Amino acid sequence: MRLMPAASLNSSYCGRFAPSPSGPLHFGSLVAAVGSYLDARSHGGAWLLRMEDADRPRCQPGAAEDILRTLEAFGFEWDGAVLYQSSRDPAYAQALEQLRASGRVFPCACTRSELADSQLARLASDGAQVYPGTCRAGLPPDKTARAWRLRVDDARIAFEDGVQGRIEQALAREAGDFVLLRADGLFAYQLAVVVDDAAQGITHVVRGADLLDSTPRQIFLQGLLGLPTPAYAHLPVAVNARGEKLSKQSRAAPLDAVRPQPALRAALDFLGQAAPAELDQAGLAELWRWARQHWNLARVARQRNLPAPE
């Protein structure tokens, strides 16, 4: 890892890349890494790494180390030490206690199957179950708490996304009261990412549009916890020929760390940053130099997903 000299960093911009170590990086991961990295570096800002390994059952042994090796092989340079969510439980517990003290959270006894079988069951736009409010007024008789949820009431969140434009969401209708502490005792993604973005001083979040529908929940949490809200920009997600997001589940091919330049060139093209043809014969460093000098977020397609290159 090579660090940016502190004197060259713009303290008003701090970005991050936060992969989950559930498997090797693939082209979709590279798109998010490239977009966040170039936006940070084009502003003279810091670019941090965070391993989102709070969901321990999904993490693969050795995957975090493999991700770091792949990023280095592709020429990424990050600032400071890598933050691991698995070491951050005390911070998440403190945030949850703050919300408990304010009366915003409640225990929930519902199982996934019970929610799916509910007559009020419906899905949010991101495919998640919208909570029907079963335990909001108290646990049903003879039921014990399994998880803790955040009560959203009639909150409506709106923000201007740097790529996708104006986004509005009525939380009760489109997300419902969402989980902060899971039934297995692990802290939920929404709470962890909000606490960690604030702790790392993140000012700009550039990531895939698969997380766009989660952003209003995160902004809502930031307000309740008294934390700053970063600027958001959600890049198109790379999908395969079946329209599936590239992922371990869709059997996306791992990145080739031995020959990184073709994939980097393809990621730039995917993001609307087509490099000159003569750079095909140049080295990786020259391609990165061109990309940093010519990065323009306005050229990224205003779409939630795009076909991955074949």
Quick structural summary:
The protein has 310 residues and is an alpha/beta fold. It has helices at 27-42, 63-73, 89-101, 112-117, 171-174, 189-199, 215-225, 260-270, 284-294; strands at 10-17, 45-51, 83-84, 105-108, 147-150, 156-161, 165-170, 178-181, 204-208, 231-235, 237-239, 305-307. It folds into two domains: 12-87 and 200-307, 3-Layer(aba) Sandwich (Rossmann fold); 90-189, Alpha-Beta Complex (Glutamyl-tRNA Synthetase, domain 3), CATH 3.90.800.
Q: How would you describe the overall organization of this protein?
A:
With 310 residues, the protein is an alpha/beta fold. The protein has two domains: 12-87 and 200-307, 3-Layer(aba) Sandwich (Rossmann fold), CATH 3.40.50.620; 90-189, Alpha-Beta Complex (Glutamyl-tRNA Synthetase, domain 3). It has nine helices and twelve strands. It has helices at 27-42, 63-73, 89-101, 112-117, 171-174, 189-199, 215-225, 260-270, 284-294, and strands at 10-17, 45-51, 83-84, 105-108, 147-150, 156-161, 165-170, 178-181, 204-208, 231-235, 237-239, 305-307. The chain has a three-stranded parallel sheet with strand order 1-2-3, covered by helices on one side. Strands 4-5-8 form a three-stranded antiparallel sheet. The longest helix is centred in the first third of the chain and has 16 residues, at 27-42. The chain is elongated, with a radius of gyration of 20 Å.
